Hints:
Layout: H1 2-18, H2 37-50, E1 54-57, E2 75-78, E3 84-92, E4 100-109, E5 117-119, E6 126-128, E7 130-139, E8 142-150, E9 157-164, E10 167-174, H3 181-193, E11 195-198
Antiparallel strand pairs: 1-11, 2-3, 3-4, 4-10, 5-6, 7-8, 8-9, 9-10
Amino acid sequence: MTRLWTAIALAVAAAALSGCGGRASAAKPTAAPHCSSAARAGWQRLANRIQAPVYCPAWLPDPLTGVIGSRDNNIDAVSKDRSYLESWVWQETGAGAAGGELHVNLRAYPGVTAVPRCRNADTNQSIPCFADARGTKRFGSIVATLYTVNQDADQWHAAYGWRYRGSFYTLSEHVAPPLTYAKVVRYLDRELRSLELINPS
Length: 201
């Protein structure tokens, strides 16, 4: 009986190995994300304008596009210090409609690695624009910190912040119906994985 079970075990092991070419299979490398050509063109122009790398989102929740200059791109702003804010928003309201909002922001602060400061609307005090850190996650080469108390255009958003080549970058999304906080974080995770780095040309 022992020989029978040994033979069965060996046969099962051989079958498993033959399906893997006789060795343990390595995980397939994940393909690098690629933005649409429509999105890439605008982000390349932005990188050239600020002379710093930018991150183009290859995926945003439908119907957001990630295309600079598109109908849903409600903010396209570059400051004198080369920091920028790119924002996309979708809203649905009206009788009989469930309603809801999708709102995603991408920012960068070239040459600055510290969390930027904002003015508190109530006290006029200088406070961190991104605060209440809730740990870090790695997304490829990006190690991002999750912030849950944020200011200005990122208020009521969950936000990831990370550093690259001496600059601070953020990606945030509004926590609002139809999305829960947990779903926003899942969306942010997918959005971060989709980012394509574009260098100035």
